[in-house]
Design goal:
heterodimer, A: about 200 residues, alpha/beta, Rossmann fold, eight-stranded mixed sheet, four-stranded mixed sheet, 14 strands, about 25% helix, B: about 250 residues, TIM Barrel, nine-stranded mixed sheet, two-stranded antiparallel ribbon, 10 helices, 11 strands, about 35% helix, about 25% strand
């Protein structure tokens, strides 16, 4: 049994997530095998790419049925976070349905290029072990065209012409729209907090 | 980068060695750089692909995003670089030879992974300057003008799925007299994806000008940082004091 499994979903940021965990002294296994994922103490669902493509890969491996049943801490990153929700407007895709909400594309507005790409500030909404030691206004790195509106499960928001969910947490399911693996010391803290959650 | 070390030229010529790849990556990470771009400047002219080993070494070290440019001609090339831990790939000469490459990359990895680098030269004319796209600029002996007008190419690459444009203004590159503001303003008007200014930074005021006047999303610089004439923490403090939002 691996203590930490990164779901290998064909996404582009699998390697950078693995290296970020290595910098924290944790060796992660990579797997798309439902049995391996189910046995892990913690699961990270990374994701860079398109929602429809990612869901198709999860369905092909049977992980679409497994992931909602997991009871250990799960962290979705970027697209991986969006997949935890009901649906995405990207390709009008049904997602895993664990969290309530639909990812919508940022509107095309002057002065706010899409994708939203760059460092932006986190606004914590309530205290959470996932946010331990992360102050309001710390910067995290974002790269995305779709976003979840604020919801009761959002523990930190960000603003890009409109507020959106930056970090989400409900029960054992957590998600970061930002890329903790590329968000300097703030991101490392977030990952360390996830690794410290009771499993 | 060339032959495993970081080099910097003036107006895309006379490249001198600046230092080792990992050494510089760590130096800039610690100084507070927000993103690093690694240009393998001889990959396209030589018909080579970017080697993967150093990408992985850099990815293990860096906790900030980085982009790899040079010699990416196919989805498989990009997959190797992204799989090794880079956030983005930047295509330039190969996209000029095969514009559909941009679409293939964007469909496979998402637009946010696909940066199009444009080397643009200013050509003075009686009705004001026009801007033309150059190819194979990494090798002075092969660098050449293309028939493409920069503004047309900016529109086209966005339609094809580019998620970011880095505009390298050749006339101002490496000479540290400031970014090419008129050109960047003209491109900004056509660019709805993030636009990164490149070429010409010499003083902190040049950075302020390009953010304020050309409304770019990022400013890329090499010489001033490689030579130590501007320290990144000082620059960020200066920009913040001037009202530009930057990560501390």
């Amino acid at each position: 049994m691996s203590s930490l499994v990164i779901v290998d979903n064909g996404g582009g940021n699998v390697a950078s997530v693995r290296y970020a965990l290595e910098r924290l002294g944790v060796e992660a296994a990579l797997s798309a095998d439902p049995a391996v994922v189910r046995a892990a103490r913690r699961v990270i669902l990374p994701g860079v790419g398109a929602a429809a493509d990612a869901m198709q890969r999860l369905r092909a491996s049977g992980l679409d049925r497994l992931i909602p049943t997991l009871t250990q801490p799960v962290l979705g990153i970027c697209l991986g976070m969006q997949l935890l929700f009901q649906s995405s407007a990207e390709g009008d895709t049904q997602c895993l349905g664990i969290l309530a909400g639909r990812a919508e594309r940022f509107p095309d507005r002057a002065g706010l290029p899409v994708p939203h790409m760059g460092w932006n500030q986190l606004a914590p909404q309530r205290s959470s072990p996932l946010l331990a030691g992360i102050e309001a206004g710390e910067y995290a790195y974002f790269v995305h065209s779709y976003a979840l509106p604020p919801s009761p499960d959002a523990i930190a928001l960000c603003d890009y012409g409109q507020p959106f969910t930056a970090i989400v947490s409900r029960g054992n399911f957590h998600g970061a729209q930002c890329h903790p693996e590329r968000s300097g010391s703030t991101g490392a803290r977030l990952l360390a907090n996830f690794l410290a959650l009771d499993a | 980068m060339r032959d495993g070390v970081v080099v910097k030229g003036v107006r895309f010529r006379d490249h001198k060695i600046v230092g080792g790849i990992e050494e510089l990556a760590l130096r800039y990470r610690d100084a507070g750089a927000d993103e690093l771009v690694f240009y393998d400047i001889t990959a396209s002219p030589d018909g080579r692909r970017v080697e993967r080993a150093w990408v992985e070494r850099v990815a293990r070290l860096l906790d900030i995003p980085f982009c790899v440019a040079g010699g990416i001609r196919s989805v498989a090339d990009a997959e190797a670089v992204l799989g090794a831990g880079a956030e983005k790939v930047s295509v330039n000469s190969p996209a000029l030879a095969d514009p559909e490459l941009i679409s293939r990359l964007s469909e496979r990895f998402g637009a946010q992974c696909v940066v199009v680098g444009i080397d643009s030269q200013t050509v003075p004319g009686p009705d004001g300057p026009r801007y033309e796209v150059h190819q194979y600029t990494g090798d002075p002996s092969r660098s050449r003008a293309t028939p493409r007008a920069t503004l047309d190419w900016v529109r086209q690459v966005q339609a094809l799925g580019a998620g970011e444009i880095v505009l390298n203004c050749m006339a101002s590159d490496g000479v540290r007299n400031g970014y090419d503001l008129p050109q960047l303003i003209a491109v900004r008007a056509e660019c709805r994806v993030p636009l990164i200014a490149s070429g010409g930074a010499g003083t902190p005021a040049h950075f302020l000008d390009v953010f304020q006047d050309a409304q770019v999303d990022g400013a890329l610089a090499a010489s001033v940082f490689h030579l130590g004439t501007i320290e990144i923490p000082d620059l960020k403090q200066y920009l913040r004091a001037a009202g530009i939002e930057v990560r501390p």
